Amino acid sequence: MQVGTKVFYQSQITSMTDLQTKLGRIQEEISSGKKLLAPSDDPGAYTVATRLNQSVSALEQYGRNIGMAKSRLSQEDSVLQSTSTIVTRLNELAIQGANGTNSNVSRDAIAKEMDQLSEQLMALGNSVDANGDYLFAGYKSNKPPFEKTPDGIIYKGDTGRKEVELAQGVSTPTSSNGQELFMNVSRNATTNQSVSIFETIKNTVAALKNGPLDNDHLKGVHDAIDHFSTYQAICGSRMQKVETADSNRVGQLTNTKTTLSTIQDADLASLASELQQKSLTLQAAQSVFAKISQISLFNYLK
Q: How far apart are CA 63 and CA 55, in angstroms?
């Protein structure tokens, strides 16, 4: 059965066009590194890949949240260590101040050092994080939370705690607020009201002007040691929660990316080989077609 010239030409052109289309597709896959370029390629796989890409984006955002939480909690831990050192020194000074053999000059020297330590504590309370936000101001993080007034050091932040989401349904505060950390250090035995570390120091300094410190003043300073130790433990617990969430996130991210790669990533080595093979086939077809096209009907009859 003979094939008409027109049909032959059309068949060859269709074949070469198809090869060119396939070559274009291969080049797209190599360029993008993906075998899924559109939903029509594989609707089911494309839907799964889209969902996995969304999971990767969420896990990477959690990673950024965790990084911020680690930074702020690490800074809080550092502040609390410095604070604990200061209140330990305050306790030592209070014990010295309770000694009845101290002269007025000695008690005055103790009072002056306590005042200096109070200033250092206020400076620590006004610490800022890497973004320039005040660490212990609650949600009012754009202004210093502690301010010195004629009546003493006051807190101008709020009782909020900035939180971040570490994983779906899992969040943690990234610091304590200044109210709970510095202003509720102990309780007044008479009024049962909270007493700040600054008020404790102020009262102790005032008492030193009248003579040796009594047990109530010693207890107020010692309570501060226990208070800040408790918040160091709270900070450590939050950091452990962040570390656990990060470990789980890294494992989940690795598994998700592996699955996603299996679904959507192209086999570049195989594509390179196929590209070369199809390019040679197309070149051969084009060469043959060109030669055959030059043969006229007259030459064919001869």
A: 12
Which residue bears the tokens 């077809």?
285
**Is residue 30 in some structural domain?**
yes
Dihedral sign for Cα atoms in the order 274, 280, 285, 286: positive
Q: How many domains does the chain have?
A: 2
Whether 134 contacts 126, CB under 8 Å: yes
Does any domain span residue 130?
Answer: yes
Q: Amino acid letter at 139?
A: Y
> 252 and 269, same structural domain?
no
**pLDDT single digits (tens) 84-105:** 999 999 999 999 999 999 999 9
Mean pLDDT throughout 137-161?
Answer: 96
Burial of 171 (0-12, 13-18, 19+ CB in 10 A): middle
Q: What single letter denotes the amino acid at residue 270?
A: S
H-helix or E-strand spanning residue 154: strand 152-155
Helix (H, G, I), strand (E, B), or coil: what is residue 49? helix
Query: Could you give the CA distance from residue 184 to residue 177 in angstroms, rounded to a whole number?
Result: 11
Cα–Cα dist 22/31, whole Å? 14
142 pLDDT higher than 80: yes
Instruction: State how far the Cα of 141 lies from the Cα of 135, in Å rounded to an integer.
Output: 7
Range of the domain at 166: 76-259
Q: How far apart are CA 238 and CA 235, in angstroms?
A: 5
Q: Which two tokens stand for residue 211?
A: 């003579």
Asked if residue 218 and residue 93 are part of one domain, the reply reads yes
The reply to whether 27 and 116 lie within a common domain is no
Residue 266: band (very low, low, confident or very high) from pLDDT cuts 50, 70, 90: low
3-state percent breakdown (helix, strand, coil) of the chain, nearest 5: 70, 10, 25
Residue pair 146/126 in contact (Cβ under 8 Å)? The answer is yes
Tokens matching residue 166? 């570490």
Whether residue 146 is found in the same domain as residue 188: yes
Per-residue pLDDT reduced to its tens digit, 50-67: 899 999 999 999 999 999
